[in-house]
Amino acid sequence: DVVSYVMDLSNDYNVVTNNCQNFVIDIIAHFYAVGDEIKSILEDNNFSSCLKKVGLIMNLIETIIYMLNKKYVIGGIKNIPMEINKMDKLPPSFMDKYYRLLDLSSKEEIIDSTKDIINIMIDYFNRNNIDIIYDNNLNNKDKNKKENISSDSFIGSYEELYSNYYNKLKYAAKTNNKYLSFRTMLDIQGFFDEFNDTYNMPYFSIIDKYNSCDLNSNVIEYEKLLNEWLKLYKELNIEVNIIESLDELYSQKHRITK
Fold first, then answer.
1. Vertex 175, ends 171 and 176: CA angle to 5°?
2. Which residues of the chain have pLDDT under 70?
3. How many Cβ atoms from other residues are within 10 Å of residue 85's Cβ?
4. Which H, E and C letters describe 27-61, residue by residue?
């Protein structure tokens, strides 16, 4: 049933296109991208990999909502759900389906929850003739051959992992903010993957440790990885410059080489 649903998504998109004559191609492309991620989840037996795809789906869905309302969030990542909830144009029960994406413990739950939210969004767009204008510039990054790690490529990375992501995870645990915890861990994984894909180095993974029932455990698991990253710093003879605030972090000259 789920497979048939996913394979029929393109027909739903055609309905959306026909009913909304002023739709630009970008929003349809976002719907297709969600469908592609769901298809990919169906074929993926790695739960942590599926969770990463849920993060991509959330990004796509949020962007569709921004396009629909012709506005963007301004209060930072921890306030995204609150700001979206205040937007004028939202499908019925959208926030309930949206928050459900943060409490997933199996592949079956992932499939059901992503199916539910895309269904209500497709239904909403089918029922409304909406004029949307949006420019979407995709930034395709060339994948280079893996390089050997060096102090030049790693300097500033520990400070970023500590001052930015570590503080966010601790804040999420303190305030029981599941959204912030999940999205921060996805961002951390993206950060790790940049290095995993670029350099010959030990593989780092955090998303497989995500625990929606115990946000403090996410902090503990991340602390273990921070210690492992610090070992790389010491091997490369990089002096640690701990920065407690984000403002101070971004004012420093040390930047991660990308």
1. 110
2. 1-29, 75, 129-144, 243-258
3. 12
4. HHHHHHHHHHHHHHHHCCCCHHHHHHHHHHHHHHH
